[in-house]
Write a structure and sequence with these properties.
The protein is of the alpha/beta class. It contains 11 helices and 14 strands.
Length: about 350
């Protein structure tokens, strides 16, 4: 690192890489200098979009560039262990997309390797950096909701930027299916928002075009709080989280700039005073909305905030989260959910299978 900016290489040039590239191009202290992908058209397209970046067919050639400080591993999960280990072996810092691996055996291998490296690793849980969810976490810790009773969420989509999902997203053994690839976001958020582990889960899954295309998970947290989320890759776009307590509730609608709403107990959403208050809040939030618009909107802004946290943490040598331990925790919940969906029974998270392969 030069001391003033961080030099970055992107491994994997699909849809996720386009989002990360756009986020990085808006940061003054980040420079994307190279990309790598076995798909020639994908790497050339991304290299051109980045203003003429170096482009490699073999990710190892990118890792061997001494000027690169950080690599973002944006490939399917079954490649993560190999690529992250190779990056750590040559002293690169790593942003690793979720889920961190396909199974707990590989996750433990990666954790052990990272523990022996001075390099920093962050997991790409961008939702922790969504401003509405950060506000929700702050309000929960301040006691605005009182005693939390339950949380519910939904994450659904039919496509990625107008393109069909890649083939690996249909297969559990490659890290796909909504119970693994998509739901780990919410499993991490349960920890982030509520500050406690999941005890047991029960899941129902529907497979219409590959493994787990639509699913619902209900879980009991360690304190007894009930949480539930629904996921789909065959349903119209939505992403919301709601948390209910005995003193109020919070709704975070993640695609809306005015999507944060805190409602005290005894108040009702349709009341005229409430509606007027929401209108005034929306007007006051316009400056922040315009800033988010420059970064692709309030949802995509979370990727920029994730990278800002990582870059500044490396330059200032401060603590960086989410960690690989966080990635392992959410993966373990996902594997328990898969077992539950297959068995039709509630599964303790500690009883999650270590692997779905073989």
């Amino acid at each position: 690192m030069s001391g003033s900016y961080v030099s970055i290489g992107l491994i994997g040039c699909g849809y996720a890489a386009e989002i990360h590239l756009a986020a990085l191009c808006s940061l003054a202290r980040a420079r994307v200098v190279a990309v790598a992908d076995i798909d020639a058209s994908a790497r050339c397209r991304l290299a051109e979009r980045g203003g003429g970046l170096q482009a490699f067919a073999d990710y190892r050639d990118l890792l061997n560039r001494p000027e690169i400080d950080v690599v973002a591993i944006l490939t399917p999960p079954y490649l993560h262990l190999e690529m992250a280990t190779a990056a750590l072996d040559v002293g690169k810092h790593v942003l690793l997309e979720k889920p961190i691996t396909c199974d707990l055996e590989e996750a433990d291998q990666l954790l052990e390797r990272a523990a022996r490296s001075p390099s920093k690793v962050i997991v790409g849980y961008n939702l922790r950096f969504h401003r509405q969810l950060q506000e929700a976490r702050r309000r929960i810790r301040e006691g605005a909701l009182g005693k939390v009773e339950f949380l519910r969420g939904v994450a659904s989509s039919t496509y990625q930027g107008g393109r069909r999902f890649p083939e690996y997203r249909r297969r559990r053994d490659l890290g796909g299916g909504v119970l693994i690839e998509l739901a780990v976001h919410h499993f991490d958020l349960w920890w982030y928002l509520l500050g406690e582990d999941v005890d047991e889960v029960i899941a129902v899954s529907r497979a219409t075009d590959g493994d787990d295309t639509t699913a619902t998970v209900v879980a009991r947290m360690a304190s007894g709080v009930i949480v539930t989320s629904a996921f789909s890759e065959h349903a119209a776009e939505q992403h919301e989280i709601e948390i209910y307590g005995d003193r109020g509730r919070i709704r975070a609608s993640l695609y809306r700039f005015d999507g944060f709403d805190l409602v005290p107990s005894g108040s009702y959403e349709g009341h005229p005073v409430r509606r007027l208050g929401r209108f005034i809040e929306a007007l006051s939030g316009l400056p922040a909305a315009l800033r988010a618009y420059r970064h692709g909107g309030v949802f995509l802004e979370s990727f920029r905030s994730l990278w800002h946290h990582f870059v500044e943490g490396m330059l200032a040598t401060t603590a960086i989260e989410p960690t690989l331990e966080d990635g392992r925790r959410s993966l373990q919940v996902a594997l328990a959910a898969v077992r539950s969906a297959d068995s039709g029974r509630a599964v303790r998270v500690i009883d999650a299978p270590r692997s779905l392969r073989g």
